[in-house]
Write a structure and sequence with these properties.
Elements: E1 11-14, H1 16-20, H2 30-42, E2 47-51, H3 57-69, E3 74-80, H4 83-93, E4 99-106, H5 109-112, H6 119-136, E5 140-145, H7 152-164, E6 169-174, H8 181-194, E7 202-207, H9 214-223, E8 228-231, H10 245-254, H11 270-281, E9 298-299, H12 302-310, E10 329-330, H13 338-347, H14 354-370, H15 376-383
Parallel strand pairs: 1-2, 1-8, 2-3, 3-4, 4-5, 5-6, 6-7, 7-8, 9-10
This protein binds 3-methyl-2-oxobutanoic acid and zinc ion.
Length: 390
Amino acid sequence: MTQTTDKDRVWIFDTTLRDGEQSPGATMTHDEKLEIAGLLDDMGVDIIEAGFPIASEGDFKAVSDIAKNARNSVICGLARANLTDIDRCWEAIQHAGRPRIHTFIGTSPLHRAIPNLTMDEMADRIHETVTHARNLCDNVQWSPMDATRTEWDYLCRVVEIAIKAGASTINIPDTVGYTAPVESAELIRRLIAEVPGAEDVIFATHCHNDLGMATANSLAAVAGGARQIECTINGLGERAGNTALEEVVMALKVRHDIMPWRTGVDTTKIMNISRRVATVSGFPVQFNKAIVGKNAFAHESGIHQDGMLKNPENFEIMRPSDVGLSDTNLVMGKHSGRAALRAKLSDLGFELGDNQLKDVFVRFKELADRKKEVYDDDLVALMRVGEDPE
Ligand code: KIV
Ligand code: ZN
């Protein structure tokens, strides 16, 4: 199946090892990068952006080793719009079963001023570099960086040039997280409708999260016709990060009724890779982060715990097992009620009659007022008469 033949399929392009690693302080070692690439490949990520080979010897070696070890995923390397970068990128990825060169240049007025190129000079540069990349590799992705702040006519012009020069994926980055979802959908829809040759390539969306809209913008872009989402595990990335892989993948799964597109990701592997990326990058996941936060499947309030015990669908729209967790976490604290305490004690091997539960519940509440969370060991101690669990 080629990328353009299955219209319901959304390709997942993970850039944890490139854009994710660019977050200040998130540097990973060579072995850690290889491990994460292996996990991404295993979970069914379609394209892994393994790094920026020209950036350093270490990056080159990591991309090259990831390329040699890849099993199913396409392995992509990043290159700026110059021949040296592109050659170095090809050198690193050429041994992959399925290599891809990703080359980019900033096309907005602000970004055009950096290399100090006129619009025409930049257009020529795009033609030259995409053609060069295509002569090396038959899978080329091109990105107009800061596309969402690029003049409409110029954006159409350069996208058309890249397509004619042989790019098979056109990525439209919202580099500074500036776009809103309605604009994101409309931008892709219009590009596909108005740029000659657009129907023969895949449009990708690459969103940053500066205004907290990266996931919404990515899904809106898919509604507009994009068929590749660029994302990172835990939303790791520059500044406020990139679109979180776990969010777009689970949103497409859980709300398939209104977003009828599929990914190839095995969602049961999400939690494990999320934890590994948090550990190796040194970026902990916020407790209330969607899908992978410690509290994403945790319930403390009595009403919620009682509802969960009666039917998990009362307060959960996906099963913990869908993302690789063994179970819902009923957190015992001062908001918990009798039903949860009885269930928790039963799990720990204590079957209580009503009177006994009443008595233990009073002592449990006294303890919960003193502690943020009451752990299983605390409850076991509570069941031992006369023992102070603290
Ligand atoms: O955010 C961005 O524009 C990028 C490009 C290199 C695709 O990461
Ligand atoms: Zn980016």
